[in-house]
Write the structure tokens for this entry.
Amino acid sequence: MYKNVILPYQYDALEPFIDAKTVNIHYNKHYLGYLDKLNKLLDANNYNYKYSKEELINHLDELPLDIRDDVLYNLGGVLNHELYFYSMSNRKINVPIGTLRNKIIEQYGNYDNFKNKFIEKANQLVGSGYTFLVLDKEKNLQIINTSNQETPYLYGFIPILALDLWEHAYYLQYQNRRYEYIINFFEIIDFDNINKNYEKALNQIQKNNL
Ligand code: MN
């Protein structure tokens, strides 16, 4: 079985920007729901869990044809939520640090430009999905949207920051005010975690290019 990640903070840690009830339901019902469905599907097909969750995306062809879509959907749901929860905290490290900070300045000029580009992209998403900051194969940052539970790994990107834009991520507190939720996300981004993701992704790409 694939194991769940522990929520790295209390349910109310993200208040007032995301309320405790939303975090509780999001983690326990939505995230753990995807994980449960994924494990049940794989168990029913005698999968031996030899790949990490990220690796499995590139080995779906080893699974029976008729379950691949379902596995991919739920696997995406698991990976996207794990990154989303890890993207935030109440540690107030909500401006870029470390090597990621330098990369953001190199590509976007300054943090405000980056932030505005991210907000603009998030505003463009229609329906359910995510806005991601990803690293591409040339080791450059890109801000992309994906629909539903599509994972950026599918397109050869390594996601390092995720904003969940499904209504369940904000509707209890914000109702139709999605823009406000997007703006407030920047108050609770944990750039220490994102910098770690960035450095890990850089190493991964280096290894892949060898
Ligand atoms: Mn979600």
Remarks:
- Strands lie at 129-135, 141-147, 158-164.
- The chain has a mean pLDDT of 97.
